[in-house]
Specification:
Number of domains: 2
Order of helices and strands: EEEHEHEHH
Shape: elongated
Strand order of the largest sheet: 3-2-1-4-5
Strand content: 15-25%
Number of helices: 4
Helix content: 40-55%
CATH class of the largest domain: Alpha Beta
Largest sheet: 5 strands, mixed
Structural class: alpha/beta
Distance between the termini: 81 Å
Radius of gyration: 25 Å
């Protein structure tokens, strides 16, 4: 991996992903610009990358380095960003350094800004900030998804069976108590 030791200016982008929207934080190492796009809006994301280059005074052909935390979205976003010519890092969320002494406010906006600043540090060579996830092939990811779905369905089945058993016990007690009252017990 190359670092930014050369003169080449880059656009850094961190993504804070949620089900309904994506928080994007852009930086040219001096300023941070934040914007929100609808989740999954690939065209909107590309338009915002182009706009961020303009707003932050970078040339249109400036390379883009980005990152996001691994999560429920899987790795399709990584593949999309790579196809668009951006270098991307998928970060293991549990490995991100956090100052334990200081109480911190947690918002998507602050997380995105913090993530973009950490991305810049990572690109400059600070490799202990976080761990980068190994990107599985599409086939491997599909295999994992099937396995996880089966596990989730089995857990759901157990939950339903336990609920039905509980309801049957309650019904039996109610029916048994009413029958006992009639029999004079």
């Amino acid at each position: 991996m190359e670092s930014t030791t050369g003169c080449e200016k880059r656009l850094y982008m961190a993504m804070e992903l949620s089900a309904s929207k994506w928080g994007l934080a852009f930086s040219n190492e001096e300023k941070v610009r934040q914007i929100t796009v609808m989740a999954g809006d690939q065209a909107g994301l590309l338009a915002q990358v182009k706009r961020a280059k303009e707003k932050l005074g970078l040339p249109a052909d400036a390379p883009v380095v980005c990152c996001y935390e691994a999560g429920r979205d899987g790795f399709w976003i990584h593949r999309f960003l790579e196809r668009e010519g951006m270098r991307n890092h998928v970060v293991d969320a549990a490995s991100i350094e956090v100052n334990r002494r200081k109480r911190r406010v947690k918002t998507d906006r602050l997380d995105a800004e913090s993530l973009v600043r950490m991305l810049i540090r990572y690109e400059k060579g600070e490799r202990t900030l976080w761990r980068v996830a190994k990107i599985p092939s599409e086939a491997e990811e599909d295999e994992r998804r099937l396995h996880r779905e089966i596990q989730r369905l089995k857990k759901e089945r157990t939950s339903h069976c336990n609920r039905i058993r509980g309801l049957l016990v309650l019904q039996e007690r109610a029916t048994g108590a009413a029958l006992g009252d009639r029999l004079g017990r």
